[in-house]
Amino acid sequence: MILGWFIGAGFVSGREIANYFSIFGKSSFISICIAGILLFIFIYMFFRLSQKIQGFSNFVLKYFGKFGICINWLLVISLLILTSSMLAGSVVIAETIKINKFIFVIMTSFLCYIAVIGNIKALSKINLILVPIIIIVILTMCWGYADTKIQNGDIMLSIISGTNYVFINIVSLGLFILEVGKNYSRKECLIASILSTLIICLLIFVCNNAIITNNLTNYPMPLLTLSLQKNLICWIVSIVTIWGGLFTTITSSVFVLGNYINKYIKNYNITVILILFVSFLIGNLKFAFIVNYIYLIIGILGFIIIFGVFIQEKKLFYLKKSFSCSKDIKN
Fold first, then answer.
1. Domain-located, residue 330
2. Do the domain assignments include residue 256?
3. For the residues of 182-219, what is the DSSP string, one character each?
4. For residues 24 and 153, is the Cβ–Cβ distance under 8 A?
5. pLDDT tens digit string along 36-94?
6. H-helix or E-strand containing 70?
């Protein structure tokens, strides 16, 4: 489910990777390593937090206090942006295969609705089927490219960009983990964090290498262009795979949003329909525009959330230490 959330249309199409890594050439490979370390730390951190806190509403209340309401709705907006970007990606797919955009988006939304009104086990089964296929296709498509003439970009800018990419993704992924992480043991959480991070880093590495080697950084969907350079079958498989990545992210995002907004709109079915409708309206913005520019807002919010958690945890640590010392003195 972590991989299903992370590997959305922006990832599978190569647009996110090109924008946050590939434009920096050789330096991007260093950035990927640093991003991987941060990603593991944050994924495991949210797993541990999920053991103590029930859902992201309680998380925001505990760590941000009086600013909690503001942070809550910023998170909701971020998840809506993520969902809308996936629907905007479905528009790009429809344009690519030359079918009616409106019908294709409605079909995607309807399938998402069917998946989300099920339960977490249904989402798990969907990811269990789609995610391995997506991983195999990406590795098959991108593996084996090599070019010794790759330009070297600015290392510091590359690291900043890679770090920002982690913050962008950890906002939505962290909220999802807070909702489902409490169902798993500490050992399972650690294993999930390690395996997820390794697989994500491997996929970013091979995709990044393929995009740089084939000079595809400026294309709206670099990996779709790459598949077209190979043959028609690869192109068709790539389209289906991008849609699969898009679908797994939409379902996970709408699941978290639905659980939160359902506190205000008691009918869950209406809640899900409303989320998809609003996402559809926002999704009228271009896919590449959302990924390149609006995602930056989510990255800033991600930094604020992580910073807030570390500050609060530091305070709690010193309070516990102080309490422990005063207890020892009394004894």
1. no
2. yes
3. GGS-HHHHHHHHHHHHHHHHHHHHHHHHHHHHTT-TTS
4. yes
5. 999 999 999 889 888 777 666 677 777 777 777 777 777 788 888 878 888 888 888 88
6. helix 68-97
Strand partners, 152: 25
Position of tokens 């790009």? 92
**Residue 280 to residue 107: CA distance in whole angstroms:** 12
Query: CA–CA separation, 80 vs 77, rounded Å?
Result: 5
* Whether the Cβ atoms of residue 157 and residue 278 lie closer than 8 Å to each other: no
Question: Residue 285 in contact with residue 49, Cβ under 8 Å?
Answer: no
The amino acid sitting at 193 is: S
Per the CB < 8 A criterion, the answer to whether 287 and 88 are in contact is yes
Residue 59 lies in a domain: yes
pLDDT single digits (tens) 252-299: 788 878 877 877 787 888 888 888 888 888 777 666 667 666 777 778
Domain that residue 227 falls in: 2-320
pLDDT (0 to 100) of residue 240: 85
CATH number (domain holding residue 118) = 1.20.1740.10
In a domain, 328, yes or no: no
Lookup: tokens for 153 = 């970009």
Domain count, the chain: 1
The pTM assigned to this predicted structure is: 0.78
